[in-house]
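Exercise 7b. Backbone tokens:
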């Protein structure tokens, strides 16, 4: 494989007009251009398809190859072409990212094939460069095939002369013809003079050929070195272009940051304006409070003058102050209790209303119980006169005492009931059956009496709660009177509170001034950052412009160098034709 690669490299360098004149210079000129024209892509596809079909290999159609074939088909094409050079080559999906660039580099491909670009070789942004590389490889293989076949079939000599069927030299170049003519004329004269032998003409001719070959090899080496330099410059230009793309991204990022700085600056300006408005309002409020404070100072001074004029004892004033503080405490506690009572008033009103309803129900229950007892005694033949003589209970919901509510004292009513029950028991002791019935009636009566007593006790508790609520209302009126008396003390407390508020306003004014200074400093820092960003952007623009001019200048130099190389290749072609 090494001899074959060296042969191909020599052919590529010496005869580049046939293999690279249509592809390599164009690729070198377009090394920094990411897209190829459709015409060049079609030419590459035609070259690849033509070479593969000449070998009897039909992997895909030209349309599929132009658009980018599936990865498996591309692997088959690579293996087919690479095995023409090295039969042991095996490109797979796992090793293609490393083996393909390595093969092209060893084979002398003038472009840089990065490993990262081969991870997705059939992608739209990678397929064009891979298509050009395949076309280049097909052209080199095609030329090597034609060159090797012609040399073998025609019997090419070591000196580059094609010998005919009878051993005659077929000279196809004027320069070679001139060289052979000069050497033949020279040695013919020597032969006439008897100074020529059969070996001298061959030695001289070989010396001339060696000199020409050494010159040609030096020219080839120079061109190879120039090509390597061009490859290095191309790689540098590619890196510079990538760096320029990164610079563009950085510029876009800087623009976004600049917009954010502008938004922050606008928000800071709005905050400053709002703070100034708040400061003005605070100053006006402070001015009003200052006027009020001056008025309070004047009154305080008048009061002190009055105290001095009346010769009031300071200890008395201290005692009065302590009493005022204690009174303030009592007032606050009283206000708290008043608020609690105000919250309890709706509940008490609701409870009173429910108590009235329960009293009415109790009256109905008691009347029903009285009628039940009377009816029970009548049905059992008992004496009901004593029960009829009992006056019915009349519940008065507006009464304030239990006697007023019931119309009779509960103890009196219970005593009357006990007497009636005792009398009834005495009258019904004669009959066991009557006694049993009476006991049942008495038990029922006791149950009713107990229920009535419980109802009355609940009613009395609710009535006592109503009395307490009434007492609280009276206390509330008393407290309101006391509150009116202490209004002057509260006013003085308000004056103290006003003084405290004035001090807080003064502290607030100091804080506002400090905040205003801080906002001014932030605005200055923002302006400085803005200027710094503008300077950086200006510098970046200048650097980018200089880099662009430098790149254009270097590209022009590369183009001129390529033109010179093309001209030299034309000259070398003429020299090479001497060997042909």
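Sequence design result:
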């Amino acid at each position: 494989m090494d001899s074959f690669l060296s042969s191909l490299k020599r052919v590529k360098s010496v005869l580049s007009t046939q293999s690279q004149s249509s592809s390599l210079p164009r690729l070198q000129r377009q090394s920094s251009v990411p897209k190829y024209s459709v015409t060049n892509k079609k030419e590459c596809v035609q070259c690849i398809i033509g070479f593969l079909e000449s070998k009897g290999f039909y992997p895909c159609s030209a349309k599929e190859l132009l658009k980018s074939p599936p990865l498996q088909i591309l692997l088959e094409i690579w293996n087919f072409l690479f095995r023409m050079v090295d039969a042991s080559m095996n490109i797979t999906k796992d090793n293609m990212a490393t083996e393909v660039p390595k093969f092209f580099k060893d084979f002398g491909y003038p472009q840089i094939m990065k490993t990262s670009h081969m991870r997705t070789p059939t992608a739209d942004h990678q397929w064009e460069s891979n298509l050009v590389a395949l076309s280049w490889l097909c052209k080199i293989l095609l030329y090597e095939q034609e060159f090797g076949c012609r040399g073998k079939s025609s019997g090419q000599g070591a000196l580059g002369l094609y010998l005919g069927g009878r051993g005659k030299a077929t000279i196809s170049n004027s320069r070679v013809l001139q060289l052979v003519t000069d050497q033949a004329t020279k040695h013919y004269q020597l032969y006439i003079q008897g100074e020529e032998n059969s070996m001298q003409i061959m030695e001289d001719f070989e010396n001339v050929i060696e000199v020409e070959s050494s010159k040609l090899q030096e020219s080839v080496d120079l061109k190879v070195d120039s090509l390597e330099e061009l490859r290095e410059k191309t790689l540098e230009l590619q890196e510079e272009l990538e760096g320029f793309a990164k610079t563009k991204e950085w510029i876009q990022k800087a623009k976004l940051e600049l917009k954010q700085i502008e938004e922050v600056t606008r928000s800071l300006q709005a905050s400053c304006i709002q703070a100034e408005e708040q400061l003005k309002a605070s100053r006006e409020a402070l001015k009003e409070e200052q006027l009020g404070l001056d008025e309070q100072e004047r009154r305080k001074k008048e009061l002190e003058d009055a105290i001095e004029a009346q010769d009031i004892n300071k200890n008395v004033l201290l005692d009065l102050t302590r009493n005022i503080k204690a009174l303030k405490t009592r007032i606050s506690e009283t206000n708290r209790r008043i608020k609690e009572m105000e919250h309890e008033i709706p509940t008490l009103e609701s409870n009173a209303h429910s108590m009235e309803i329960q009293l009415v129900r109790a009256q109905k229950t008691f009347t029903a119980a009285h009628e039940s007892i009377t009816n029970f005694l009548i049905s059992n033949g008992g004496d009901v006169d004593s029960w009829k003589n009992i006056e019915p209970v009349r519940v008065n919901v507006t009464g304030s005492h239990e006697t007023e509510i019931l119309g009779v004292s509960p103890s009196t009513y219970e005593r009357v009931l006990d007497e009636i029950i005792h009398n009834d028991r005495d009258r019904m002791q004669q009959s066991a059956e009557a006694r049993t019935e009476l006991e049942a009636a008495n038990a029922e009566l006791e149950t009713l009496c107990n229920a009535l007593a419980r109802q009355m006790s609940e009613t009395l508790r609710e009535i006592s709660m109503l009395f307490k609520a009434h007492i609280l209302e009276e206390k509330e009126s008393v407290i309101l009177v006391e509150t009116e008396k202490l209004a002057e003390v509260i006013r003085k407390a308000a004056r103290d509170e006003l003084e405290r508020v004035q001090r807080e306003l003064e502290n607030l004014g100091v804080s506002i001034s400090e905040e205003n200074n801080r906002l001014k400093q932030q605005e200055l820092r923002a302006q400085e950052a803005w200027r710094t960003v503008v300077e950086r952007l200006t510098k970046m623009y200048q650097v980018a412009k200089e880099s662009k001019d430098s790149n254009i200048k270097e590209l022009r130099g590369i183009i001129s160098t390529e033109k010179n190389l093309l001209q030299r290749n034309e000259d070398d072609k003429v020299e090479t034709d001497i060997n042909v």
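Instructor comment: Residues 1-37, 149-172 have pLDDT under 50 and may be disordered. The first helix runs from residue 2 to 14.
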